[in-house]
């Protein structure tokens, strides 16, 4: 295996971002525009890429899909000189004050690494509505779509029961679909649920009926019932893509998120994490804000000037030939 520290200069970066969602791309945009050699390693996919429409992002029409949103961001990055490659980072090590990365396109080295690897939603078993056309995972993104419409929530835990009750803020017709599973929610949640008009359906889903436009119209159940729904939410937890963070010894929270400060710094010096991999709301504007703060924090750590008094005493005054500190 090639040693990443032997990489040629075109694989050496000041900032390496692992993950190409809104958080990672925003971090890379800030780092690049603030004059740092930056690379994004993106395996593709992710929650943002799955969006058929973009919601809650000021200035972006809802007709813009997730793929279109991300493609525009990548074009912006490349226009400022960042390196973007579609590759998978298989490992990262902290060595000699730098990070050595192994990727499917070869080794690379970086002074700072930003993990923006997100999480994967737990998916229920088929039969299912089409994702984005009746099957959704983000209440804050898509609840508005179902105002005064019949809605389901799939799941059997506290989160599913809570989301079902939350949907009563938008519609009076909410079904909580256990799909044959026994409830695992707490006694407190059970007491709350018993006092909210949520229809708890125990039977398994056996079929899906879609309209001509592909949107869900109804679900079929194994007791022969057909219940009309305009759409709904699957609540089966999430699996955080924290393997790289764990391999570097970064502190993790009990739910699997990476512990960070207000600017995305982890417990490992030089390692940052942003977006859905960290605690907080899983929203594009929130992820972009985290990326911006991380990019600025990294710039403050890496920028050349002003030199400290200690550096000036040991190295002498800054010569005009040494500025500006922007790479070719």
TrEMBL record:
The record's listing under Pfam families reads: Pyr_redox_2
Q: Which GO terms describe its molecular function?
A: oxidoreductase activity
Keyword tags: Flavoprotein, Oxidoreductase
> Region Disordered: what ranges?
309-328
Per the database record, which ranges form the FAD/NAD(P)-binding domain? 13-291
Q: Which InterPro entries match?
A: FAD/NAD-bd_sf (IPR036188), FAD/NAD-binding_dom (IPR023753), Ferredoxin-NADP_redctase_2 (IPR050097)
Instruction: Give the matching PANTHER family.
Output: THIOREDOXIN REDUCTASE 1-RELATED-RELATED
Protein name per Swiss-Prot or TrEMBL: Thioredoxin reductase
Organism field:
Natronolimnohabitans innermongolicus JCM 12255
